Amino acid sequence: MDIKTPDYHSIEEFQNRSKKLKEIRDLGIDPYPHKFEPSHMAKEIFEKYSKKDLGHFDDAAAGETPLVKFAGRLVLFRAMGKNAFAQIQDESGKIQIMINRDLTKVDGYDVEKSKEKQSHIKFIEKKLDLGDIIGIEGNLFHTKKGELTIFAKKVKILCKTLLPLPDKHSGLADLGVKYRKRWLDLITDPKVIDTFTKRSKIIKIIRNYLDDANFLEVETPVLQNVYGGAEAKPFETHINALHQDMYLRISLEIPLKKLLVGGFNRVYEMSKVFRNEGLDKTHNPEFTELEAYASYWDYNDLMKFTEQLYETIALKLFDSTKVEFGPYTIDVKTPWKRLTMKGAIKEYGGVDIESLTDEELHKKLLETSVDRAKLKNATRGNLIALLFEELAEDKLIQPHHITDHPIETTPLCKLHRDPKEREKNIVERFESFIAGHEVLNAYSELNDPEIQRELLLNQVKKRLAGDEEAHPLDEEFIEAICQGMPPAAGFGIGIDRLIMLFTNSQSIRDVIFFPIMRPEE
After folding, report:
1. What b/e sequence results for 455-486 when a residue is b if at least 16 CB atoms lie within 10 Å of its CB, and e otherwise?
2. Which class for 96: exposed (0-12), middle (13-18), buried (19 or more C-beta within 10 A)?
């Protein structure tokens, strides 16, 4: 079988490092040992010892200062005669180490067995490279300039690297490399480590918040016979064992509602969903979604609950409700401003919906940049939703709940309890907006099986008319509702967009470890 040799095998640096790897092995040293147990991480060492009077060079040389074991990647090396200074980087930061000609020993290295008869310090200088992962055991001290340093007594090779790190000054200028080879991005930019560390903390905060409110975390299928819960085009796949076409879920909604029917009062899932859509700064075809449903709640309860979630995250991360995001200082302190969709159009777009006919609304939209194809056969509800997008959405900088949407925006929501709004086909839905972008979708859930089936049949008509994102008819879901779903409310949050806000990231790709990339990137 003819397999093409990778391009990087022809790089001079790869060839030089491969030669060094062979020389290390020939000396009987294992360059990829099984285990090393650090006693501290860099951050812990600094927090514990940086302000203590540890002593100086002679004290560390005599072993009279604290002994630590530390492991990380070699990112800087300077030979200075009898001593060499290096920087080792782990997940939490960097620390300086000092290698001494007389006292530093390389684990497994025997000077007498080497052809060159190199000293231990010379072996480190000649056989190790920037990027190599090493373990250090030594004593802490402060240099004359006051820098906390490990006097290395033992050096152990943990991983000999065969490819160089990116240039430390220019870093990763190519965004395609930054996102495709995230490991390089993490190595070269501490801010990226911080972003993804915050991501993990945020997810834990969210889980704790929901758990404390007696929500049960559950898992539902990724592969579905019938997809639903959002207007989106799915990814299709096939199960060979069943000779059956399947879909990757576009939402978590339908199976979670079935669990409410089954008797669980409050459930949530935070997991991947998949939508066969475009890529931009706020969209990735594979993304993390949180959906939660509470029996006996309505959308008013959710407005309070979700805004308190954002406030909780901010306080736990920053001890403040104010969050810096791009050019804005966003204050997520509760309560958030509430406007109906029509009210938002009037306040931010200067258009009074109630005073205009359908034809006048259509004419208003022709004055905007709206896609003209969306106006074809648009109902009054469609026109209202489009006017909101065009005239108000980008002006919602500070947190807003936009309530009471036209029924055309979702087939899964309860009609408004106010008879006047109900006659106008307004539903009890709200979307939350920050910095001009939707961050949350929620509504009082529809649990009337007759109305639900009628609305999904309307979606089927839209599909037959060419709308690929309309809901399919899910008879099993309707059957479940026929057996009784209590009054309930549910919400969905795109976790990646939420993390963008709290990490001041302007692209969704900056908060997903390995985002989907176009081939040319």
Report:
1. bbeebeebeeeeeebbbeebeebeebbeeebe
2. middle
Calculate ∠ Cα 464-468-471, nearest 5°. 80
Q: Where are the beta strands (DSSP E) in 249-395?
A: 266-274, 286-295, 322-325, 328-331, 337-340
- Whole-model pTM? 0.92
CB 375 within 8 A of CB 393: no
- CA 254 to CA 246: how far, in whole Å? 16
Range 267-286 average pLDDT: 95
Task: Give the integer Cα–Cα distance in Å for 306 and 304.
Answer: 6
Tokens matching residue 456: 């999904």
| Cα–Cα distance, 120 to 104 (Å, whole number) | 7
Contact status, residue 135 vs residue 69, Cβ threshold 8 Å? yes
**pLDDT attached to residue 171:** 60
Average pLDDT on 386-408 reads 97
Tell me the two tokens of residue 49: 């010892």
Whether the pLDDT of residue 58 is over 90: the answer is yes
Q: What residues does 148 pair with on adjacent strands?
A: 142
Backbone angles phi, psi at 422, to 5 degrees: -65, -40
Q: What is the DSSP letter of 356?
A: S
Torsion sign over Cα 316, 320, 321, 325: negative
Kindly give, in sequence order, each residue whose CB lies less than 8 Å from that of residue 338, ignoring residues fewer than 6 positions away: 303, 400, 401, 403, 430
Region at 254 (left for phi over 0; alpha for psi -120 to 50; beta for the rest): alpha
The pLDDT value recorded for residue 417 is 96
- The Cα–Cα gap between 403 and 430 comes to 4
d(CA 391, CA 386): 9
Task: Report the distance separating Cα 487 and Cα 5, nearest Å.
Answer: 62
Any idea what DSSP says for residue 7? G
Domains of the chain, start order:
7-165 (2.40.50.140), 188-336+399-510 (3.30.930.10)
DSSP structure class, residue 280: B
